[in-house]
Design brief:
Number of domains: 1
Distance between the termini: 37 Å
Shape: elongated
Number of strands: 2
Radius of gyration: 21 Å
Order of helices and strands: HHHEEHHHHHHHH
Structural class: mainly alpha
């Protein structure tokens, strides 16, 4: 069910990343580009590679819209709503979960799969032999995920407003909440994807490892079902992972104020949302720094 992230043929080395530092110094062309400049150049390459896989890109962008249409139609038959009268239309209630799962697909799933494939095909090993700093490579990955996620969110919100008559916020406060939940959630998902990319033993097995994890988290995190209707033990498991908190944070943006009482805790828990996402972000940075591999396991 989950959209498969596009696989890339391996990083290419162009533009400001090329050339040896010694040769550049002799030619008198000046200092090497900064880490940030190289990261921005790498972002352009990553985006080109991503959008070249047109069929996969279309499916990734369409997946949240399709799932929103399916669940809103199935559960919203005969004007059914969520919560006490007058209730919340199912399309409105499911939109935040689809935004959260879209972020997870574009960040965690996309990077976990694509990096593992690049490593397996030898692209990371070749890239590591260039003068480009490792930090610039990761800047390129994270920035490309942020840009693609923004495009995905724009399409989803536009479809929700036009096709399902979903009310979007009209004041600045909710959009500020959207900005920090989206930004922190995307960064967390991206870093978790980078760290997790070292878990699968090969690029061939990575989809079989990553996609089931994503599917399970979607079902237990309030994406496909009303979160308060899930079994208590399932809620406790979901609370450990970022997706539940991203979905809850997005509900605070797109649902009316009275919906706060529908939450299990009776509140939106913004401080807890920020704390859990930040904890996962920090943990993934630490783990990724220790475990990230540029070469295959069998490539001594």
């Amino acid at each position: 069910m989950s959209a498969a992230a596009p696989t890339h043929a391996g990083p290419t080395h162009t533009g400001p990343v090329g050339g040896s530092p010694t040769a550049r110094g002799r030619s008198g062309t000046g200092a090497l580009p900064s880490v940030l400049a190289l990261g921005l150049a790498r972002t352009g390459i990553e985006l080109k590679q991503f959008f070249r896989e047109r069929d996969a890109v279309v499916f990734i962008f369409a997946y949240p819209v399709i799932m929103l249409a399916i669940f809103a139609t199935v559960f919203g038959q005969d004007g059914a709503t969520v919560g006490p009268e007058p209730g919340i239309p199912f399309a409105q209630y499911f939109l935040p979960g689809m935004i959260a799962t879209g972020v997870m697909l574009s960040s965690f799933q996309n990077l976990a799969i694509s990096i593992a494939v690049e490593r397996d095909e030898g692209g990371l090993k070749r890239l590591r032999g260039t003068p480009m700093p490792a930090v610039s490579y990761f800047i390129g990955k994270i920035a490309s995920v942020l840009i693609s996620s923004l495009v995905q969110m724009a399409l989803l919100l536009g479809a929700g407003a036009v096709l399902f008559d979903i009310d979007l916020p009209t004041t600045a406060g909710p959009w500020l909440t959207f900005a920090w939940v989206f930004g922190l959630g995307t960064a967390t998902g991206a870093m978790c994807g980078i760290a997790f990319s070292s878990v699968p033993r090969s690029g061939k097995s990575v989809s079989a490892v990553v996609i089931p994890i994503v599917l399970v988290l979607q079902f237990i995190s309030g994406v496909f079902f009303v979160y308060s209707d899930l079994p208590t033990w399932m809620q406790r498991v979901a609370e450990v992972f970022p997706l539940k908190w991203m979905a809850q944070g997005m509900r605070s943006v797109f649902l009316p104020e009275q919906a706060e009482s529908f939450e299990v805790s009776g509140s939106w828990q913004h401080p807890m949302t920020a704390a859990v996402l930040a904890a996962w972000l920090l943990a993934s940075v630490v783990v990724g720094a220790k475990t990230f591999r540029w070469k295959r396991r069998d490539d001594g």
